[in-house]
């Protein structure tokens, strides 16, 4: 039976990079059934809401979801804010699909070492940010304006259960890597962080095969630049993970290179997940063929790895990306002297061809 994949291309460069990830998935020879649906600004324009019910229903019925990107300046002025793509589409998708575990690998590709702002061997980063995705300040209530708009309130809430379940996923991933976790919090100030540290400390005592250290978020931000090779798995809450994973991505050279997986609980041998590049919709280059599809393509590799336990084909896609870059082709964001500039489609074609071989 074909795997059912919901394809939510979204806005800006989303449709362009998602088309290339679909192309590469088809090149693997796996039997997929791709179904498209509107999300984000495109859905708001067509349906009056950034997450139409039919889109949510399709995602719930699918085996996995491929997402491009949502939003853009055009939609930043929509009132109420709950109808803006990021708030009205991404947050409800995470909540309704129980996508609490965000896996964001950051790995420097040797062919792109010169694109990193760090120099020499220090630029060789290989880490994973495990970001809790459905709790914290992004979801806490109340979220409101008071005193005629002069006071704004956001609420950060975490439960013991929420910390335990994301930490459990971090321990699992650490065991497949270098058996190291850095738990990042702000326990010297925040009560939620003190709970976070208590829970992770207790779990570390029960999982002694994995080395666990605690680090304050401001120090973690500094150490990511000073000594990024120190990190293996970074376990952290929603807002800290959002910021640190973007910082880690720039060490590798470009936001256009990094994928992500947002995972729910396992059901038998399957894990439901939503897979997307971490970059935004980049409306300034949309439709120009300049977008880098590698992050979207590597997100497709994560789909194979996590939702279908197909490590062989996932690794084949990742190897194909390396081979394409080693051949000297580059999209505009990573172009440098001595390489050949190619379009979004040409990069996708080259990687798909390598996968078929």
Structural overview:
By secondary structure, this protein is α/β, with parallel strands linked by helices. It has two domains: about 1-100 and about 265-355, Isopropylmalate Dehydrogenase, CATH 3.40.718.10; about 115-250, Isopropylmalate Dehydrogenase, CATH 3.40.718. About 40% of the residues lie in helices and about 20% in strands. The protein is built from eleven helices and 14 strands. The strands form three sheets. It has a ten-stranded mixed β-sheet, sandwiched between helices. The chain is globular. The mean pLDDT is about 95.
Notable characteristics:
single chain, 357 residues, alpha/beta, Isopropylmalate Dehydrogenase, 10-stranded mixed β-sheet, two-stranded antiparallel ribbon, 40% helix
Topology:
Elements: E1 3-10, H1 14-27, E2 32-36, H2 40-47, H3 53-61, E3 64-69, H4 85-96, E4 101-107, E5 126-132, E6 144-146, E7 151-153, H5 160-175, E8 180-185, H6 191-206, E9 211-216, H7 217-226, E10 233-236, H8 238-252, E11 259-267, E12 270-277, H9 294-308, H10 311-326, E13 329-330, E14 340-341, H11 344-356
Helix pairs in contact: 1-9, 1-11, 5-6, 7-8, 9-10, 10-11
Per CATH, what is the topology of the largest domain?
Isopropylmalate Dehydrogenase
Q: Report the CATH C-level class of the largest domain.
A: Alpha Beta
Order of strands in the sheet with most strands: 2-1-3-12-11-4-5-10-8-9
**Structural class by secondary-structure content:** alpha/beta
* Overall average residue pLDDT: 95
Number of domains: 2
**How far is the N terminus from the C terminus?**
25 Å
Question: What is the CATH architecture term of the largest domain?
Answer: 3-Layer(aba) Sandwich
**Low-pLDDT regions:** none
Shape designation: globular
Number of strands: 14
Number of helices: 11
Portion of residues within helices: 40-55%
Radius of gyration, CA atoms, in whole angstroms: 20 Å
Please trace the helix and strand order, writing H or E for each element.
Answer: EHEHHEHEEEEHEHEHEHEEHHEEH
């Amino acid at each position: 039976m074909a795997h059912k994949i919901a394809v939510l291309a979204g806005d800006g460069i989303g449709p362009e990079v998602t088309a290339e990830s679909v192309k590469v998935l088809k090149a693997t020879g796996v039997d997929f059934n791709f179904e498209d649906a509107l999300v984000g600004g495109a859905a708001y324009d067509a349906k009056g809401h950034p997450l139409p019910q039919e889109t949510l229903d399709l995602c719930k019925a699918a085996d996995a979801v491929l997402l491009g990107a949502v939003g853009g300046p055009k939609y930043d002025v929509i009132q109420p804010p709950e109808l803006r793509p990021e708030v009205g589409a991404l947050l409800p998708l995470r909540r309704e699909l129980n996508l609490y575990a965000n896996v964001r690998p950051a790995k420097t590709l040797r062919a792109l070492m010169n694109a990193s702002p760090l120099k020499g061997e220090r630029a060789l980063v290989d880490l994973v940010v495990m970001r809790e995705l459905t709790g914290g300040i992004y979801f806490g209530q109340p979220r409101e304006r008071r005193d005629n708009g002069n006071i704004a309130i956001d609420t950060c809430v975490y439960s013991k259960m929420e910390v335990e379940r994301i930490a459990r996923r971090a321990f699992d991933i650490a065991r497949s890597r270098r058996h190291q976790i850095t738990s990042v919090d702000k326990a010297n100030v925040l009560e939620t962080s003190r709970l976070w540290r208590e829970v992770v400390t207790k779990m570390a005592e029960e999982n002694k095969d994995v080395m666990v250290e605690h680090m304050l978020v401001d120090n973690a931000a500094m150490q990511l630049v000073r000594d990024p090779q120190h990190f293996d798995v970074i376990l952290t809450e929603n807002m800290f993970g959002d910021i640190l994973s973007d910082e880690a991505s720039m060490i590798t050279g470009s936001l256009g290179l990094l994928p992500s997986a947002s995972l729910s609980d396992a059901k038998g041998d399957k894990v439901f997940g939503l897979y997307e590049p971490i970059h935004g919709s980049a409306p300034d280059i949309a439709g120009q063929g300049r977008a880098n599809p590698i992050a979207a393509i590597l997100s497709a590799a994560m789909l194979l790895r996590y939702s279908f336990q197909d490590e062989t084909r996932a690794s084949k896609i990742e190897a194909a990306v390396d081979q394409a870059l080693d051949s000297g082709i580059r999209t505009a964001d990573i172009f440098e002297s001595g390489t050949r500039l190619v379009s979004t489609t040409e990069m996708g074609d080259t990687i798909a061809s390598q996968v078929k071989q």
